[in-house]
Fold each of these.
Amino acid sequence: MNAQSPLTLVVEDEPQIRRFVCSALRDESCRASEAGSVAQGLDLAARERPDLVILDLGLPDRDGVDFIRELRVWSAVPVLILSARSDESDKIAALDAGADDYLTKPFGIGELRARVRAMLRRSQMCGDAGALHAFGDVEADLARHVVRRAGAEIHLTPQEYRLLVQMLTNPGRVLTQAFLIDKVWGPGNRENNHYLRIYVARLRHKLEADPARPRHILTETGVGYRFQPQSPAH
Amino acid sequence: MSFAFATPFASTRRVADYLAAVAVCWLTAAVALPLRDRLDLPDIVMLFLLAVFVVATLLGRGPAVVASFLSVALFDYYFDTPHHLLFLGDTEHVLTLAIMLAVGLVTAQLVSRAAAKADDAQARERETRQLYEVARDMAGARDGTEVLEAARHYLSDRGLSGNLVVADDDRLADRAEGHHVTGIASFPLRAGTKVRGVLAVTPLDDRIGLADTQHRAVEALASLAALALERIHYAEAAQRAELLVADERLRSAVLSSLSHDLRTPLTTLVGLADTLAEGRGTLPADAAETAGVIRDQAQAMHKLLSDLLYMARLKSNSAPLRREWQPFEDVVGSSLRLAENVGPDRHVIIDLAPDLPLIFFDAVLIERVLCNLLDNAFKYARPGARISLAARLASAYLEVSVCNDGSEFPAGRIESMFGLFVRGTNESSIPGGGLGLAICKAIVEAHGGSIWAENCVGGACVRFTLPRLTPPAVVSEDEP
């Protein structure tokens, strides 16, 4: 465990949960620092500049969503939410405030490690991913507005294309419905979220091998969508 | 205004008034007689006029007229010369007598008119005061009985009895208006556009009808009662709503704190057991396996907990459905991801009809239904059985079915399978709380659909429907 290994900040008030989360992080060769409250977490985040934040939403002193808002003022560090609540609106609020991904309690260690790995890998591929994207048998050249599937060019309408661009440029992140609608159709169209559903379905039919069993354009039910460039490794 | 009831008591009083008028005139004559020689005639005229005035003021017009004539007669007989002669040979004082009579009659008329006006004003004042009092009583009334109490009090003051029928029914008003049983007058209690009931009024003395003036008064009373009933109605509605909100808030708070408090230890349990089970090589194989079992059991307990919480929420209406228009395919994909992640040997055959319309449903809940049905299909199927998920349109519904070609449902149990804590096979080793299908039923029914099970060729099938409804318009590309 050297200074080069990524640093993760775990903000969670339940010590036993912190314990196994940190143990899983060490298995991923991460250093971990722990905080039990929003105040302590913000303090540690400012001093230690972590590479990843794992945040419980139900903290004793303040709402976890407040933590994300304050953190996002000065940091773009990826945030993974742990939510004990089954209510999707909490997750949506946290994601809209700037969190990147979530895990619903209880979760398995394998699931946690996979998320941490994916988030750290994305943040290390820092910044510009370039204009060329590939997933499955699809290649997209955003500079030339060309999308090919198995070598053949696929026609996308302007809105389908805009939606695909949002997905390609936010790989692995959970994108809330509100976020996608704002980006593709502009704010003020949030009541028309059936458009988003229809366009996602159209993209799947054009780009997925089996649209009923999507591998890349995934639905996070009740929350939004996630674009997964690689099929989940099993 | 006086009441129209002429009672025997009133007529006796009138006779007494006339007798009193006569007595006053005689008294005046008796008082003036000893002074006849010392007073001038005009003075005596004045005395008699005073008597007429007093009678008019105190006893009204009739007695005053009688007093006028009697005064003239008495004056003429006792005081005018020649004495003790009535209207004979006294041409000298004809004018005096005539003027005396005229003044007496005019006085009687004026005074009685003033008295009538005063009476009228007094009656009006009393009327207003009574209305004010009944309005005040009704404003303070807490229920229909107190409104009736106030109305009855008011009516009994005016010789009437009343009854109140409280009902939110417009037909009642129509019936009441066209319905005048002899002796009973009905007044609809109309407040705003709504009729709140009917006021039925009967005179206490049933020989007499309802006078016009009373009719107006009772109408005023009816509108006061209607307002009071309306106020009570809204106050009660507001109170009920407030109670309901407080109740739901409490229930929802209890559920969410239960959910949080139980999930935290379960998360710890799953996480720690999983850490041990996954810690390759650090534990002997059987210990690692034990840890894995603990993890799986804790997961199963969590599933049971969430099923119970879903059930409680659905039953209490504290969490309304979050229905949205969406393709059914969307929720199929996410359910399959959850169901198939459990094991590599799990594969589902999908058969979705092409071009399914948008369906209006709560994706989280329907995903729960599909997961539960797929879980059941895998649990009860023999190894290697084919599981299929199909959706097609059937007139007003989307019909979804999850089938396996393994074991059939036990005959005779199909109807009861959707009850709470009923399981397919008694005492079986297959894990599950028996909540799964009950949840599915609750969710599907909350969406206005239905769910049933059946055995089809060589396997078991659960089918459910979701109403099709009319999807929102989708504007083509350039103008979303």
Note: Chain A touches chain B through 45 residues (CB under 8 Å).
Amino acid sequence: MSELIDSLQPRFEGLEPRPSSDHPAMQCPVGLLLPLIECLRDEFSYSLLCDVTAIDWEEESPRFSVVYHLYSVKEGRYVRIVTNCEDDENPSVPSIVALYPGANWHERETFDMFGIRFEGHPDLKRILMWDGYPYYPLRKEFPLAGIETELPDAEIAEETKAKVLPAPMMGGPFVAADGSPMSKSEPRAKDQSWTEWKKKEALGGNDLDK
Amino acid sequence: MATTTKEISIGDMGARASAHQDELQGENMAINVGPSHPTTHGVLRLMMELDGDLIKKCEPVVGYLHRGDEKIAENMTYNQFVPYTDRLDYIAPLANNVAYAMAVEKLADLEVPPRCAAIRVMVSELARISSHLLGIGVYGMDAGAWTPFMYTFTEREKLYTLFEELTGARFTTSYTRIGGVARDVPEGWLQKVSDFCDQFLPILEETCNLLTRNRIFMDRTEGVGVISKEDALAYGITGPNLRASGVDLDLRKDRPYLGYDQYDFDVPIGTTGDCYDRYLIRAEEVRQSVRIIRQVIKSFPEGSWYAEDAKKIYAPQKGKILTSMEELIQNFMIVTEGPRMPEGEVYFEAENPKGILGFFVVSKGGGVPYRLKIRSPSFCNLSILPKIAPGLYLSDITVLLGSLDFVMGECDR
């Protein structure tokens, strides 16, 4: 498992094995990312880029880690490369689009969800959320229900005065609240008002009430 | 006689046209397909630039079905997320259920018993048949052949009846649990699957006969939207689309999970990577799936359908919960706090009908994932559109999209 990392370590100073429950994983200094991935692609036959994503470690620093998964079609092996963004406020890593064109959308998604900039990306813009959306939804401080924002189309927003509203979800049915006592985090419909008997006032009360 | 055929005026018109040629051809037309358009099979939007009928530029816009599944996953227990996996590739929910359960079990380092693995292989392959039947059916329809669609949907209906009997739901099955499946196969169900396979193969051949040597279908698909081997790998295309381009990558063979290595089946590989190849690959994969299912039925193991030793992960059976104190506590803990998971990072990929579906799970312990990333095949398969669409005619777009066989629920998550 660590053979790969052992053979790479003399060439890439600062490369370290990373604890992992399955595939070989390595922690790579951000400056070595491009040469390392190029080396894995060209010399170790990791020809398929599976995935690019990020993890938000919330209070820790460095706060954002970018995770790459590569697969070798020839040998049927995976490798995981993790690099930390140096700046917690304006995180950025170099883009690997030049090495794997397929990274284009993955990096756009990671930028969209975490606000991590990929330096050298040909067209870094939002992909799942709309252009001009002001938040990064997968950051830990972003609430599950969402935040009230303007509609994507300014003209329609002006005319209708409508807004994108948070989903009535947190504290609602089947959402376990984090960090509270178990009796409160029990996944159960907390809002039971829909089961209560409602008086039909328009009809002046209902006979069934009696 | 000779005077009437003198064509000076036509020559004049030609000369005048060539004088205006620059400004006429310089003007590209912007056309917008979707997000709600029958061609796009969901809510995909394509922003295209056309020169006459020729596509100059094609930019897919995705995200119209984004529901934030990854955010939701961080806020609920592992088992609670199973229904959300139904809504990824909603054409083959059972295969998603299996892939997700496998990823979390890998985190817990948990082996499922052989009977459970056999059930999972069977439902994955049934899901593959269901997905490819839809893929072939609507693909034919996109190319103008209505009839195959009717055939394949009749067969899918029978599959849905089988799913309903097994899981209780036709569409959103939520069948797997971490450490097993929700319930054992009902009595006589295997026989019904076997009967289905017997009557299904002739109908599949009949359906394919309508398309495989259909002159119109071939003219519309052969040589259209060719994806080279190198491009397919570079863009992370997976599944039948990658194999159509000639890359031998099938995780069921290369990294066997669930005991796929016990079963004998072939992986079809294409040669040219055009739209026609992608159709042929899907048709052949359906036949191979039937082969696998027959072998599973033949060697269906006895035993438990859930990991009995995983007491903190798989909830005990209902009968025991109601009669025994320890099981009651166990059930309460699993339901309220979620299955007890160790810390760690795992990445698991399964060979799903649409391609490779991957789950990257980061756990800090406890019953809720710290981060769950879904690597969806449709998302990656669509990202090649800006590369292969330019140079095609506008009418080829329907065929190209049909041949890529994507699902927006999975693409947008």
Note: The first helix of chain A runs from residue 3 to 8.
